[in-house]
UniProtKB/TrEMBL annotation:
<keyword id="KW-0808">Transferase</keyword>
<comment type="function">
    <text>In addition to polymerase activity, this DNA polymerase exhibits 5'-3' exonuclease activity.</text>
</comment>
<dbReference type="InterPro" id="IPR002298">
    <property type="entry name" value="DNA_polymerase_A"/>
</dbReference>
<comment type="function">
    <text>5'-3' exonuclease acting preferentially on double-stranded DNA.</text>
</comment>
<keyword id="KW-0238">DNA-binding</keyword>
<dbReference type="InterPro" id="IPR036279">
    <property type="entry name" value="5-3_exonuclease_C_sf"/>
</dbReference>
<dbReference type="GO" id="GO:0003677">
    <property type="term" value="F:DNA binding"/>
</dbReference>
<dbReference type="InterPro" id="IPR018320">
    <property type="entry name" value="DNA_polymerase_1"/>
</dbReference>
<dbReference type="Pfam" id="PF00476">
    <property type="entry name" value="DNA_pol_A"/>
</dbReference>
<keyword id="KW-0548">Nucleotidyltransferase</keyword>
<comment type="similarity">
    <text>Belongs to the DNA polymerase type-A family.</text>
</comment>
<dbReference type="Pfam" id="PF01367">
    <property type="entry name" value="5_3_exonuc"/>
</dbReference>
<dbReference type="InterPro" id="IPR036397">
    <property type="entry name" value="RNaseH_sf"/>
</dbReference>
<dbReference type="InterPro" id="IPR001098">
    <property type="entry name" value="DNA-dir_DNA_pol_A_palm_dom"/>
</dbReference>
<dbReference type="GO" id="GO:0008409">
    <property type="term" value="F:5'-3' exonuclease activity"/>
</dbReference>
<dbReference type="InterPro" id="IPR012337">
    <property type="entry name" value="RNaseH-like_sf"/>
</dbReference>
<dbReference type="InterPro" id="IPR020046">
    <property type="entry name" value="5-3_exonucl_a-hlix_arch_N"/>
</dbReference>
């Protein structure tokens, strides 16, 4: 039995949009294009096609805002709210989706989709097809026949099927009588008035008795009372409503003919990739199928010196993100000689290739230079003269873009290739394809995009005044970080074992104390069990729907002794699992940890550290600070040196705002927090206590981060009105800073971004968001990012300058860590005096500000002694 599916395009798109928009799922592609309606439309279509064997599928759309029904009733459909812009934008994308699917769609000027569906249904029936019409529009019930059913979508992916019997059970009328029913009842959604006082029950009763509106009027004398009067008074409206509600089924559709549905998988895959609908890609993409190849990728087993060329792209594909440990799959190499794939097992032993990589006369282009350098370094292979890193360039251009190669290709080429996750799979199913053609093409295509897009990206950075930041700061920083990571940090394993045992004992003791107080066995790691304990068993006041989040417990910790035990348990458990027992898995054979510094993760330019995170070890809590004892010198002949910028963000604030008070205080060497306390609390220097200074310090740093009166009240444990008064006092005493902050917010509103001193940009779409909370979040970003981002830039400048100077002087000193505003060095004792002077000079003079940058230094044999 051949069956046709007809789809009411407008109805389905509207339903798809509102079903997802109201649930908060306003999906967007990477470039910000709204796609929620398209996604849900595709979901409904895919589901119905999967469950049914349709010979052909056709979609009908309304064409234009005015049709022949407006000639009959001028205010037809008047009063309907305007479609949201996010929905309007998706109509052409749905049509693009249908084109990719190879599903035809029809629209005809002056007519509605309903009329086209009626004509298509009659044409299909005449050709002996059965028909399903998918729509939420119940007007289409009039098209039901012995061969045509209406499918009304309902919540989820299913639909209710309406045939003649189902319609009779629902409305007690036949399909032909649906226009009569609507003529009597009217339809507010279409602005059809109908007969006043006639609702559904009355209309059905009249139709059951008289069959049609015309027959009602032929028997009008049989009807009594107000109903008769209303029918007589509004006869013209009733007949007009019926006419308007009647679907035309005799339009000329030209040479349209039903054709067999044959899905174009390649075009559909491209569409899903373009709009980042990865869940559909996963369902459609089959790793066993041959891949469409539009490039010629040459698989090589050895390097030919004739291929040596300046400006060659060398991209190393890794199986996992951790390049210290990951399997190295192979190289994608591109220059004028072609696109090559070179398997790592062969390249690893190819001395001609190694010589090319090490040759400083040849520039190399890549993506993620640090990964390339460190990965090759594991086999003592050196690569020199990397002059371009697409990952860094893309990050500088727009730090809001998630930094994966496929995302940057999408950003710059408007082309979405398969992500690594889609190609290799994920979790336990992640594997390297055995098909060499497929693998080589995937890696070769990546390398080709790196090569092909380089000039465009460099031009964009140059035109955006960002090239200097990229080339002079970020690129040399990545080389310094590569050397830092390879150097690693030595771990005292005896100290690690001792602390692990001690903290494990504390954790177990705290668990027993919690159980004793609770008078039952409780797993402190279970939010569900803790919630039941606190809010049901102990009947504590529940401020946030049973939440046991850290900030919630902090606010109620005085209400019961068990809460402080839970908070302590969490602190020590994290210490144990992350930095003690958890540290063991990161130890390499050399007895060191080799962290990864993420250079493109934060939107501010700050570096972050993973596997393990070396930047998150607290120094405020004495027991947590003890963890720093496990990081030590790797030789008795060496010593550690810490060099930490003093109050760098406040100095940058003073410089950028040109506030005379702050500039004078810093340049006079005064304590900035004491100075601030004197002004905002109107006290003399001798009256400033440590507690008052701490309050001023909270205000100083809070202002940078756009702190609210509520936030400051929470930090200082004071009332909100008190906090508000302190902030107002601050701005009165430092009006230049207030003006500076306001100017940053205003600049961001007008331009959509803010910049650091070195032209690092952060785009802030939240600044003009319709949502108040989002706008406030955007304001805080606008206040803070120029300062925090500039501090990040300055530490990178210092880092790369010191790295280059150590290389130039051929010193054995190594930079081994970067933690916020601090650099840590491992130095042969014989070089200490020289390196201290060098580091102090290069850090304090890395940037010329209106105030002097100062560096605090400390020495020791473990990190514990540095703080």
């Amino acid at each position: 039995m051949n069956k046709i599916l007809l789809i009411d395009g407008n109805s389905l798109i509207f339903r798809a949009f509102y079903a997802t928009a109201y649930s908060g799922e306003m999906l967007k592609s990477l470039d910000g294009t709204p796609t929620n309606a398209v996604y849900a439309f595709a979901n409904m279509l895919n589901k119905i096609l999967k469950d049914n064997n349709y010979y052909s599928v056709v979609v009908a759309f309304d064409k234009g805002k005015v049709n022949f029904r407006h000639d009959l009733i001028t205010d037809y459909k008047a009063g309907r709210s305007k479609a949201p812009e996010e929905l309007v934008q998706q109509f052409p994308i749905v049509k693009e989706f249908l084109d990719s699917y190879q599903i035809p769609y029809l629209e005809k000027e002056g007519y509605e989709a309903d009329d086209l569906l009626g004509c298509l249904a009659k044409q299909a029936e005449a050709q002996n097809y059965y028909v399903d019409i998918l729509s939420s529009d119940k007007d289409l019930f009039q098209l039901i026949t012995d061969k045509t059913n209406i499918l009304i979508p309902r919540q989820g992916d299913s639909a209710d099927i309406f045939d003649k019997t189902a319609l009779l059970n629902k409305w007690e009328v036949s399909p032909e009588q649906v226009p009569d029913l609507k003529g009597l009842m009217g339809d507010p959604s279409d602005n059809l008035k109908g007969i006043p006082g006639v609702g559904g029950k009355t209309a059905i009763k009249l139709i059951k008795e008289y069959q049609t509106i015309e027959n009602i009027y032929q028997n009008i004398d049989n009807i009594k009372g107000n109903l008769k009067n209303n029918l007589i008074s509004h006869q013209d409206e009733a007949l007009l409503c019926k006419k308007v509600a009647t679907i035309l089924c005799d339009l000329d559709l030209g040479d349209f003919a039903f054709s067999k549905l044959e899905v174009n998988k390649e075009k559909l895959l491209d569409f899903y990739l373009k709009y980042n609908m990865n869940s559909y890609v996963t369902k459609l993409y089959n790793n066993n199928e041959p891949v469409k190849q539009s490039l010629e990728v040459k698989v090589i087993t050895e390097w030919n010196e004739q291929w040596n060329e300046d400006g060659t792209t060398v991209f190393l594909e890794l199986f996992d993100e951790n390049y210290h440990l990951s399997e190295l799959i192979g190289f994608g190499i591109v220059n004028s000689h072609g696109i090559f794939y070179f398997d790592y097992t062969s390249a690893k032993f190819d001395t001609s290739f190694h010589a090319f990589l090490a040759n400083e006369n040849y520039q190399k282009f890549t993506y993620n230079a640090k990964s390339l350098i460190v990965g090759l370094g594991r086999d003592n292979i050196t690569i020199n003269n990397i002059s371009y890193d697409m990952m860094l360039a893309g990050y500088i251009y727009n730090s809001n873009t998630r930094n994966t190669l496929d995302n940057y290709i999408n950003l710059f080429a408007k082309k979405q290739i398969l992500s690594d996750e889609l190609f290799y799979g994920k979790g336990v199913k992640k594997t390297i394809p055995t098909d060499l053609n497929k693998l080589s093409y995937f890696i070769g295509e990546k390398a080709n995009y790196i090569h092909m897009l380089r000039e465009k990206i460099v031009t964009l950075l140059t035109n955006n005044n960002q090239y200097q930041l990229y080339y002079d700061i970020e690129l040399p920083t990545t080389f310094a970080l590569a050397r830092m990571e390879r150097a690693g940090v030595k771990v005292d394993q005896q100290e690690l074992s001792k602390q692990t045992v001690r903290i494990e004992q504390i954790v177990n003791d705290l668990n027993r104390e919690i159980n004793t107080i609770a008078n039952k066995e409780v797993n402190p790691n279970s939010p569900k069990q803790l919630s039941e304990l606190l809010y049901q068993d102990l009947q504590l006041k529940d401020y946030k729907k049973g939440s046991t989040a850290q900030e919630v417990l902090e606010t109620i910790k005085l209400s019961h002794p068990i809460i402080s035990k839970i908070l302590d348990y969490r602190k020590y458990q994290k210490l144990y699992s992350t930095y003690l027992k958890g540290m063991e898995k990161y130890l390499f054979q050399d007895g060191k940890v080799h962290t990864i510094y993420k250079q493109t993760l934060t939107v501010t330019g700050r570096l972050s550290s993973v596997e393990p995170n070396m930047q998150n070890i607290s120094i405020r809590d004495e027991i947590q600070k003890e963890v720093r004892k496990i990081f030590v010198v790797s030789s008795e002949d060496n010593i550690l040196l810490s060099a930490d910028y003093s109050q760098i963000e406040l100095r940058i604030l003073a410089d950028m705002s040109k506030d005379d008070h702050m500039l004078a205080a810093f340049n006079a060497g005064e304590d900035i927090h004491t100075n601030t306390a004197m002004k905002i609390f109107n006290l003399k220097r001798a009256e400033i206590t440590p507690a008052i200074r701490r309050s001023a310090k909270a205000v100083n740093f809070g202002i940078i981060y756009g702190i609210s009166d509520f936030g400051l009240a929470n930090d200082l444990n004071i009332s909100v009105p008190q906090a508000k008064e302190i902030i107002q006092n601050y701005y009165q005493q430092f009006p230049t800073i207030k003006n500076f902050i306001d100017s940053q917010v205003e600049f961001c509103k007008n331009n959509g971004y803010v910049v650091t001193m070195f032209n690092r940009k952060r785009y802030v779409p939240e600044i003009n968001d319709a949502n108040y909370m989002q706008r406030e979040f955007g304001k805080r970003i606008a206040m803070n990012m120029p300062i925090q981002g500039t501090a990040a830039d300055i530490i990178k400048i210092a880092l790369k300058n010191i790295d280059q100077e150590l290389l130039r002087l051929k010193l054995k000193t190594k930079i081994i860590a970067q933690i916020h505003d601090e650099l840590i060095f491992e130095i042969p004792k014989t070089e200490l005096t020289q390196v201290k002077a060098l580091v102090k000079d290069l850090m304090e003079n890395s940037t010329k500000l209106s105030v002097k940058l100062t560096v605090d230094m400390a020495e020791g044999t473990s990190w514990y002694q540095l703080k």
